[in-house]
Design a protein that fits this description.
single chain; about 210 residues; mainly beta; Porin; 1 helix; 8 strands; membrane; Porin family protein
């Protein structure tokens, strides 16, 4: 009995000493999670809007051509307002966006010396660009149609265009932007006159 009591006391003493000398490991610090990349807008869908701006250009008589619209010695400059409506569709590929657009514009490009004016500029455009946050920066290429009244006669022709633009999503559905386009019409309506024009237009659209 005495031996049992001594053994019990020894075990309890040893347990107490062991418990007092044991260090409890601290809990591991939480590992911070990497921030998720900011979501970029999805541009897929149709849109329609209005544009308004300014254009300038020149009509240059080709050498050795029988011109029917103006005197052969005249190279004519023009400028004025341009504005209209447009509609298109974009397809979002991730970091890139492609699409197509049609715009119809009334113009008031007055030719020098009261020769006449360019009254309409319509365009069918292919667009392709990349996203930068809420902005879309893109290039343009396509076909253009223009009509003019010169010295009392009506003329019209098709040509080509290239340009650059930027769109910005103000809200999920409202897009604001600007576009600069260069147009070229060679031998405009068989007159022997080459016409080039550059336009800059501000744009606002509703994205569906």
């Amino acid at each position: 009995m005495k031996i049992f009591g001594i053994t019990t006391v020894a075990i309890l003493a040893g347990s107490t000493a062991f418990a007092g000398g044991m260090d409890i490991a601290p809990a591991p610090a939480p590992v911070p999670l990497a921030p998720l990349p900011a979501a970029t807008p999805n541009w897929t869908g149709g849109y329609a809007g209005l544009s308004l701006g300014y254009g300038t250009g020149s009509a240059e008589v080709e050498d050795d051509e029988d011109t029917t619209a103006v005197d052969e010695s005249a190279d004519i400059d023009f400028d004025g307002a341009i504005g209209g409506v447009f509609a298109g569709y974009n397809y979002d590929l991730g970091n890139a966006v492609v699409g197509a657009e049609l715009d119809l514009n009334a113009a008031n490009f007055d030719l020098d010396d009261d020769v006449g004016s360019i009254d309409e500029v319509h365009r069918l455009k292919l667009r392709g660009g990349f996203k930068a946050g809420s902005a879309l920066i893109y290039g343009v290429a396509g076909a253009a149609y223009a009509s003019a009244e010169v010295l009392g006669d009506d003329f019209s022709d098709t040509g080509w265009l290239v340009g650059l633009g930027v769109d910005y999503l103000v809200t999920d559905n409202i897009v604001a932007g600007a576009e600069v386009l260069y147009h070229q019409f060679d031998d405009f309506d068989d007159t022997g006159i080459d016409v080039d024009a550059t336009t800059l237009q501000a744009r606002v659209a509703y994205k569906f």
